Amino acid sequence: MIRVENLHRHFGGFRAVDGASLEIATGSITGLVGPNGAGKTTLFNVIAGALPPTSGRVFMDGEDITGLPPHALFHNGLLRTFQIAHEFSSMSCRENLMMVPGGQSGEQLWNTWFGRKRIAEEERALRAKADEVLEFLTISHLADHPAGAVSGGQKKLLELGRTMMVDAKIVFLDEVGAGVNRTLLNTIADTIQRLNRERGYTFCVIEHDMDFIGRICDPVIVMAEGKKLAEGTLDEIKANEQVIEAYLGTGLKNKEAAT
Ligand SMILES: Nc1ncnc2c1ncn2[C@@H]1O[C@H](COP(=O)(O)OP(=O)(O)OP(=O)(O)O)[C@@H](O)[C@H]1O
Ligand SMILES: [Mg+2]
């Protein structure tokens, strides 16, 4: 679904992404791991249109999407999750889902003049859709709670829920598990797998928690110093000498020793 070719993103003289080439297969839950500063988030930002690349190309289903703005990519079904913005934290969870753009007629002037009935119908449909998403996420009981008042993990679920309000094809998740308790992390993992199986979503998931990666991701791509270093199952990359070396002192080994 996604092909990244020799992608570079430099900041001044610093090469955050330094010739990365990789592919994300349709229907996969692809993990993206690597030591801190490897360039994972920067790569996401370039793919998702938040940052222009210095050079290189990104293709989606064979079509060149390099440098397209986020709204155009959104239209193509390429989404990355965003934290619930501060200004929406006093709105309810349901309302936060209903805010996701998707051609609501109510936003167009023409329709506010001529289409009151249609707006009311669409609002009902949108509300029904939001409730269906909340149920899928097992957080129906939070529908009327302000989004700012739910737990960190529940907020992550809600962020994932926003991708369900539109017809997403591929969703990029950057550290959804950070600061989330085990139980909710399991719910998030289940939700990702269900969206993958039942709705055909492809995922690319950045995460430092190797249990989480091992549980849901295949393949796992390892990034180091701005490039793809290795790819395989979690067991394969854990046994890869170059990967171990890249992580020495920072990641995998220390993490495993600690758990
Ligand atoms: N806007 C920026 N200006 C300058 N340097 C940046 C900028 N964004 C990222 N960098 C640098 O690029 C490198 C890669 O950062 P990036 O956030 O992509 O790494 P990462 O793999 O996501 O790391 P982590 O696992 O810690 O989130 C880092 O050294 C970072 O300091
Ligand atoms: Mg990052």
Structure overview:
- The chain is of the alpha/beta class and 259 residues long.
- It has two domains: 2-81 and 163-258, Rossmann fold; 86-153, no CATH class.
- Helix content is 39%, strand content 22%.
- It has eleven helices and ten strands.
- The longest helix has 21 residues, at 116-136.
- The structure holds adenosine-5'-triphosphate and magnesium ion.
Compose a concise summary of this entry.
The chain has helices at 40-47, 70-75, 93-98, 109-114, 116-136, 152-162, 182-199, 210-216, 234-238, 241-247, 252-258, and strands at residues 2-11, 14-24, 29-33, 55-60, 63-64, 78-80, 170-174, 202-206, 220-224, 227-232.
Poorly predicted parts:
251-255
**Helix and strand succession?**
EEEHEEHEHHHHEHEHEEHHH
CATH structural class of the largest domain: Alpha Beta
* Individual helix count: 11
Which quaternary structure do these chains form? single chain
What is the name of the CATH superfamily of the largest domain? P-loop containing nucleotide triphosphate hydrolases
Can you summarize the main beta sheet? 6 strands, mixed
Supply the helix-strand structural class.
alpha/beta
SSE blueprint and pairings:
Blueprint: E1 2-11, E2 14-24, E3 29-33, H1 40-47, E4 55-60, E5 63-64, H2 70-75, E6 78-80, H3 93-98, H4 109-114, H5 116-136, H6 152-162, E7 170-174, H7 182-199, E8 202-206, H8 210-216, E9 220-224, E10 227-232, H9 234-238, H10 241-247, H11 252-258
Parallel strand pairs: 3-8, 3-9, 6-7, 7-8
Antiparallel strand pairs: 1-2, 1-4, 4-5, 9-10
The structure holds adenosine-5'-triphosphate (ATP) and magnesium ion.
Magnesium ion (MG) binds at residues 40-41.
